[in-house]
UniProtKB/TrEMBL annotation:
<feature type="domain" description="HTH araC/xylS-type">
    <location>
        <begin position="218"/>
        <end position="316"/>
    </location>
</feature>
<dbReference type="InterPro" id="IPR029062">
    <property type="entry name" value="Class_I_gatase-like"/>
</dbReference>
<keyword id="KW-0805">Transcription regulation</keyword>
<dbReference type="InterPro" id="IPR002818">
    <property type="entry name" value="DJ-1/PfpI"/>
</dbReference>
<protein>
    <submittedName>
        <fullName>GlxA family transcriptional regulator</fullName>
    </submittedName>
</protein>
<dbReference type="Pfam" id="PF12833">
    <property type="entry name" value="HTH_18"/>
</dbReference>
<dbReference type="InterPro" id="IPR009057">
    <property type="entry name" value="Homeodomain-like_sf"/>
</dbReference>
<dbReference type="InterPro" id="IPR052158">
    <property type="entry name" value="INH-QAR"/>
</dbReference>
<keyword id="KW-0804">Transcription</keyword>
<dbReference type="Pfam" id="PF01965">
    <property type="entry name" value="DJ-1_PfpI"/>
</dbReference>
<dbReference type="InterPro" id="IPR018060">
    <property type="entry name" value="HTH_AraC"/>
</dbReference>
Length: 334
């Protein structure tokens, strides 16, 4: 049996209770009975003193900062006051963790803490859209990407506000343990399992001209998921929604923060990941069912989006118990 994946939640006065809750909900519960990996989540701090948070809440550390030396992942919550200085031992521990090659992820205003440690100088980062000007003013050597949910640079992850922290946490699960593990945890949290970091963090939600417009967008996404194996185009999706291609693309982007083609590609990659994890179907059949048309096309998209190949992905994340899939065209969608 594999050793539990060791996750360190870095705690110090001023961290945000919501981000602590997100981290705890993703990595804390034992979901191994549902096929999820085993995690060992620890709250690390400079000492064992309870860490105060807003609203009268406290967090009790259970490991010293030295525990970071053996961690597989280090997580930094956001801050209630985004200019809160982190204790120098915390900043030193984060620098040493990065030097060892340990992935580090900050949620929302946690990017300010990483910037204090100098870890973001000369690198790309993101934080909540409402904090970008403040962040740039205090950390001018960081390249801020203003319109993303989360981003990675040199094994350091940063995320936008609130719900984007959940998206980043699930993405980190997906990278380390596969799409099925991320979907299992997302289902238990009753949240969407797949939003990519490239989606816009600040989405205008204009009031639809009619309820029909909103219903049409939901219907077309459901239709696309049921027909991923078909050569769908924006014109096809627009026709299903009863809109012109230009109107459909505008409404779709406003509602989802991404383009129809990018969303469709993301769903096809997710479907292929699940097929690779859960079945022993040959690569050409996986590509066909996920809608890529050919194994070569699927391999190209895996390389550009996941920095791996379908075969390497299967070798890393196959459950080892192939699931019998129907012979028809219906793909696995989540």
């Amino acid at each position: 049996m594999a050793a539990p994946y060791r996750v360190a939640l870095v705690a110090f006065p001023g961290i945000r209770a919501f981000d602590v809750s997100v981290i705890t909900e993703v990595w804390g519960p034992d979901r191994t009975d549902r096929g999820a990996p085993a995690f060992d989540l620890r709250r690390v701090a400079t000492d064992s003193t309870p860490v105060p948070m807003r609203g009268g809440l406290t967090l009790l550390p259970d490991r010293p900062l030295t525990w970071l030396t053996g961690a597989d992942l280090v997580l930094v919550p956001g801050l209630d006051d985004h200019l809160t200085p982190a204790p120098p031992p915390v900043l030193d521990a984060l620098r040493h963790a990065h030097a060892r090659g340990t992935p580090i992820a900050a949620l929302c205003g946690g990017a300010f803490t990483l910037a204090q440690a100098g870890l973001l100088d000369g690198r790309r980062a993101i934080t909540h859209w409402n904090l970008i000007d403040l962040f740039r003013a205090h950390h001018p050597h960081v390249t801020v990407v203003p319109d993303a949910l989360f981003i990675e640079d040199d094994n350091i992850w940063t995320a936008a506000g609130t719900a984007a922290g959940i998206d980043l946490c699930l993405h980190l699960i997906r990278l380390a343990h596969g799409a099925e593990a991320a979907a299992t945890i997302a289902r238990s949290m009753v949240t969407a399992p797949f939003r990519t970091g490239t989606q816009a963090q600040f989405i205008e939600h204009p009031t639809p001209r009619t309820d029909r417009d909103a219903d049409a967008l939901a219907s077309v996404r459901e239709h696309a998921l049921r027909h991923l194996h078909e050569p769908l185009t924006v014109a096809d999706l627009a026709a299903h929604a009863g809109m012109s291609a230009r109107t459909f693309a505008r409404h779709f982007n406003a509602a989802t923060g991404t383009t129809p083609l990018r969303w469709l590609l993301d769903q096809r990659i997710a479907a292929a990941q699940r097929l690779l994890e859960r079945t022993d179907l040959p690569m050409p059949e996986v590509a066909r069912r996920a809608g890529f048309g050919s194994e070569v096309t699927m391999r190209q998209h895996f390389a550009s989006r996941l920095a791996t190949s379908p075969r390497a992905y299967r070798a890393a994340f196959s459950t080892g118990a192939a699931v019998s899939e129907p012979a028809g065209n219906k793909p696995i969608a989540r």
